[in-house]
Amino acid sequence: MTIESIISLGVDVSKSSVTCHILTQYPIGGLKTYWQKSRTKANSLFPSFYSSPKRKSKQKSAFDFADYVTENKPDVAILEPTGNHYSRLWARILESLEIKILWVGHIELRRYRGGKNLPTAKVKAPS
Prior knowledge:
Strand order of the largest sheet: 4-3-2-1-5-6
Structural class: alpha/beta
Oligomer: single chain
Radius of gyration: 14 Å
Strand content: 15-25%
């Protein structure tokens, strides 16, 4: 497997949800350009899944997350956890689907975003 053939799933873990994004290659023009072009389409590009979804809001569940991962077949998931407790459900799903998990800490991610001049504010998930 070459670096060009790796499909990565970025997973941002929140208290009761995750927000995901599949990357098959480094964005042309860099991450900042990609972010500026894609943030208006955030709801479709960065799907969110909830541990306790609200039925009326049509929120996607952990089962939908498993389906999303199965459909996209990532080689690796890069997990940015809010905490071990909140991450456990999502990590178990990934492990059960035999997806390798790479953990990224908050401090490292904050420094990386700062070095790439990326915004620190989170994308709001649809309610």
